[in-house]
Amino acid sequence: MSKLFRFCLSLLLLRTALSALPLPAYLRERYRGPVVRVHEVEGIRERVQDGKLSLWFKDFLTLVLKNNTEIYLTRLDVLTAADAVLSARSPFDPAYTVGWNSLRSVEPQFAQTSGADTLSDLTHEGQAGYAQSLTTGQTVGIGFFSTRSSSNSAFDFFNPSISSGLQFSITQPLLYNRNNLQARTALRIAKTQLLIATDQSESQIGDLVEQAAGQYWDAVEARDNIRVAQLAVDLAQKSYDRDKMALDLGALSKLDIYQSQSQVAQRKVDLIRAQYAYRQTLDGLRRLIGADLDPATRNIEIALEDDPSSLPLSPVEPPDEAIRTAFERRPEMKAISRRYSIDAMNASVARNAMLPRFDLGLQFGSNGLGGNQIPISGPLGTTSAFIPGGLANALGQMFRFQSPYYGFSVQMTIPVRSSQAEASLADALVSRARDRYQQRQTEQQVIQEVKLATSQIEMANAQIEAAKIARDLAQKNVDAQQQRYEIGGITPFELLDAQNRLATVEGVLVAAYASYQKALVAYQRATWTLLDGLGVIVEAPKIK
After folding, report:
1. Sorting pLDDT into bands at 50, 70 and 90, what band is 18?
2. What 3-state class would DSSP assign to 141?
3. What is the pLDDT of residue 1?
4. How far apart are CA 270 and CA 285, in angstroms?
5. Residue scoring higher pLDDT (59 or 6)
6. Beta bridge partners of 97
7. Which candidate, 272, 284, 186, 189, places its Cα nearest to that of 233?
8. What is the pLDDT of residues 447-484, one digit of tens each?
9. Which of 59, 61, 240, 533 could connect to 260 by a Cys-Cys bridge, CB 3.0–4.6 Å?
10. CA 492 to CA 240: how far, in whole Å?
11. Domain boundaries, the chain
12. Helices (H) and strands (E) in the chain, counts
């Protein structure tokens, strides 16, 4: 009992010592997994000046790409697809096996041929092996074993005896799964799926950036609407001040001033609404760039520096050329072409699964025997002298192949029917047809997006030109109506109506400028030029 206790205590101490040793870097990465870093918000405080966060359009998109949570979640899909590639490598992983066992056997005997009245055997056995499936189709294995046996049998002339063996084996499929097609195809499909996930992630990032850009220009429009609302308040206030002076001089009745006074109140309500609408759009921008996560920038004032009216109009390609560019650059089109290759690989695997299984196996090895050779007494006397020996003798015989063995095997399995393989082949052909329809659908969507964005740009251009003319005419009309009102040619209602028209046209012009910028963003997304110059690279992670 004390020996068993000391043995268990020794194992416990050994385990504690090994756990305290530092692991190599590759083992730490293997058992703990790769480090997936959660990115902190960055690049915002550097743009704070005089207590304001100053943003230009390009700076805003850069911050979105750096800090937007949805974009990082989208990128994680690529890492998950990379894990699937690593999992698909498992059929090619080598396997090492090491084992040792010990057995003591004491058994009473009933025959003289046992060599003792009570046979006592002690056997120690150790083995080690290596097996791997190669990408070229072969399955190879190497095995080694060594056994030490001691006994009280009078008939053993090696006591203790040490035997060893070395075995090599290789199996080559000749028809089914030749070149390890099944596992290799699964790995190739996983790699292709990784590229598809990269394309899809890139496409989703483009959608998120387009939406963020649209929100930015909505915020710019909301900001300019405050200016328009303030202009309306100023015009109404100017009319009210003039009416108030006329009332004080007795040139205007008390009942006539309520109209201009109510107009001022209504315009102030519109101004308050515009200010709060702008505040809400800024809160949306803070979330997009992650400024709401930092208490220092959560409520900081944001200054949007872009003026849509001063930005040059960007030239666009003719629709046919833009569609051609979109077909060449859009990641959705690349993903569809990659799905075709997956369909072809699945069909190839299904056809291969219908073939008979015909495997050729080769094996060869060597044995060795060593130990203390003891004299054997027989009718004619002692047959041999005592010759000491050990493991070295057994290993020497084994590696010199003094006792070799070799052989081969052939095994053939003919499937009567391969229902699962036939169904898989049919599914692959259906998937190929489905992918062709999806390609057609994607092409139609791309064409529609390019044409719609081009049409919206043209419409925004036309609206800008028409709104400019309407704004100039409305301003001239307000000036003329003001002069007529001063000489008593029109009523206050007519002057206020002219001012309302000017404010309305100013709002239309602001909306037209914002619509042009959003249409330009949609065009750049449709032709996949939106992320150019922003340093965005979405690529598949490297697989070891």
Report:
1. very low
2. strand
3. 45
4. 23
5. 59
6. 129
7. 272
8. 999 999 999 999 999 999 999 899 899 888 888 877 88
9. 240
10. 9
11. 91-133+138-176+357-413, 184-345+422-526
12. 11, 11
